Amino acid sequence: MSAPPVSARVRVPTSPPSSWGHPTFAPSGAFFKTLNARVNDHFAARGIAKRDDPRLYLKGLIILSWIAASWGTLVFAELSAPLAVLVGTSLALACTGAGFSIMHDGGHRAYSRHGWVNRWTFRVVDLLGASSYVWNYKHNVLHHTYANIDGFDDDIDTAVFARLSPAQPRRALHRFQHLYMWPLYGFIMPKWFLYDDWMTFVTGRVGYTTIPRPKGMELAVFFGGKLLFFTLALGVPLVFHGPLVVLGMFSFVMFVQGVVLSVVFQLAHCVTEVEFPAPAPEDGAMNADWAAHQLQTTADFAPNNRLLTWYVGGLNFQAVHHLFPRISHTHYPALAEIVRDTAREFGAPYHCVPTLRGALRSHYRHLRRLGSPACG
Ligand SMILES: [Zn+2]
Fold first, then answer.
1. What is the pLDDT of residue 334?
2. Which residue, of 28, 76, 239, 295, has the greatest Cβ tally within 10 A?
3. CA 156–ligand 1 middle distance (angstroms)
């Protein structure tokens, strides 16, 4: 029996719930204009550039060396099982670190004023298994424009597995989502490179949004990236080790990456502090301008934890990142103070959870609340 057509097997929404297309925001108000001016003044007063920060290039070099050293040790050295697990964890953390601090800035064109530097730093994600082409639409376009809006922000779409937004239907299994989602996050990497990337490629859709198919160089990077990733992650290791050992370590590294990556992103948008605004059903209008929406739906966390800030590429300063995605993340801590003070002055929301532990607890409580039968 031949396989059913893709459309029969997979639910792909083909239109938004109404005829209005995409949500629309109110025109920018005085808050964002003032904030923009203050941020520009910050750079002008210090005579520094918003991108091409030497700290960013040094950091990129450190992280790529960390990946190469961990991968090389894992593949070429004779390691005991406990040591292999340790080096595997190191490789997973290094790869996720590259996602946070290299490809994320590159993808937002925040690494450099030179397009080619941004393009190639962004393509580090292809080396890590996921498609930069698909990430660009899912993250840079949809998530950053429509943060926490159900049906448009792919980051809060876990199919039936979790209820991350009050706009999503509650299912019986969600009662336990505050327990099972943490290990389930570990499967996001294979979900990306084995399913999501290919589904997006085949259907040309993300949620309610149609995206153009990759062409030319983008198409070459899509396939070349997958080939290179599987060669480095499975092909070369198989020359030196047995298939069970390779597959076991591959799964372990992917699992650690998935948990770390997902949790960091969830702490910024899926916590009790933030909102999940919905578009007006009749015309898709949001009740805020774009900047206020970003602040409503985003939380900073652990701003004084310098090690965390370094490792997660400033993603714990998510409010700054959402408002100024084209500025290198090394500037976020300084800009966060400007955002906080200006938001306070204009009565705009600015959410900040002081510690990592507090943010983890807040995500746990968010999952438990939305999964509870009393909330639905
Ligand atoms: Zn981003």
1. 95
2. 295
3. 14
Please answer whether residues 350 and 318 qualify as being in contact, where contact means their C-beta atoms are separated by less than 8 angstroms.
no
> Cα of 139 to ligand 1 centre, how many Å?
6
Confirm if 259 and 337 have CB atoms less than 8 A apart. Answer: no
The total number of residues written for the chain in this structure:
376
Report how far ligand 1's centroid is from the alpha carbon of 192 (Å). 17
Whether the model pTM is above 0.70: yes
CA angle centred on 26, ends 20 and 30, rounded to 5°: 170
Q: From residue 354, how far is each of 294, 301, 317, 361, 364 by CA, in Å? A: 19, 6, 11, 12, 16
Successive 10-residue mean pLDDT values, the chain, 376 residues:
32 51 87 96 96 96 98 96 97 97 96 96 93 89 90 86 93 96 94 88 82 89 95 97 97 97 96 94 87 95 97 96 96 96 94 97 97 82
Which pLDDT score is estimated for 310?
Answer: 97
**In the chain, count of helices (H) and strands (E)?**
20, 6
- Residue 345 CB neighbour total at 10 angstroms: 11
Q: How far is the CA of 207 from the centre of ligand 1 (A)?
A: 18
CA of 242 to the centre of ligand 1 (A): 38
Q: Which of 28, 26, 27, 16 is nearest to 281 (CA)?
A: 16
- For 59-123, the DSSP string reads HHHHHHHHHHHHHHHHHHS---HHHHHHHHHHHHHHHHHHIIIIIHHHHTT-S-SSHHHHHHHHT
Predicted pLDDT of residue 6: 29
Q: Where are the domains of the chain?
A: 53-277
Residue of 160, 154, 62, 53 lying closest to 111 (CA atoms) = 53
Q: Which of 305-311's residues contact partners 24+ apart within 8 Å by CB, and which partners?
A: 305/355, 305/356, 308/356, 309/333, 310/59, 311/93, 311/97, 311/100, 311/101
What is residue 210's DSSP assignment? E
State how beta strands 24-26 and 285-289 pair: parallel
Pairing assessment for the beta strands 209-210 and 205-206 based on DSSP bridges: antiparallel
For ligand 1, the distance from its centroid to the CA atom of residue 88, given in whole angstroms, is 27
217: CA distance to ligand 1 center in Å? 23
Residue 9's pLDDT is 31
